[in-house]
Every structure is written in structure tokens, then in C-alpha cells.
Design goal:
By secondary structure, this protein is mostly helical. The protein is built from 4 helices and no strands. Helix 2 packs antiparallel against helix 3. About 0% of the residues are buried.
Length: about 100
Amino acid sequence: MPIAWGAAAVFGATYIGLTGILLIWRTQVHPRSPATGVGLAFLVLALGQAAGAPLVGSLSTAIGPPLAFAAAALVGVAGAFVRPARRCSRALTARAGRP
């Protein structure tokens, strides 16, 4: 049980931190309308949670919890490699005054 509490604490802290970074990044992507960026970020997070929980639950029933959560972890790791288009990255870098 202590391992579960520790894992939950690490997950919660990481989720809050990454959500904050996502929200700040979205305000930079939409500098003329930061509220749009934040709203879209929250929408995408909510849709992902609404779809992800039942999918992992169904997968857990079909193949078992360990494999279902491993599959969910792989989706999360794959998402870590998604980055903005190059033109968007260049525009953000130029706006920040970096080469």
C-alpha cells in the first residue's frame, strides 16, 4: 500500500506540473488570445481523460490490468515525443528573442 501512495503522489505532482507547463505554452502559441490557448488546452485534457478512462477500463477487462496500464503508459510515452510543428517552434523562439 505505501508504494501505491507514493506512486499516486508522484503522478499527481507530475500531472499538475505538466498541466501548468502546457497552459503556459498554449498562451505563447496564441499570443493574441491567450484565453483561447488555455481553453483549448483544458478541452484537450478533458477529452483525453473522458476517453482514456473507459478505454483503459475496457482494455483492463479484456487483457488484464497490468497490460492495460502498460499500454496506457506507452501512449503517454509516445505523447512525450510529440512536438509543435517547426514553423511554430521557430516563431516562438524568435518571439522570445533567441536565435
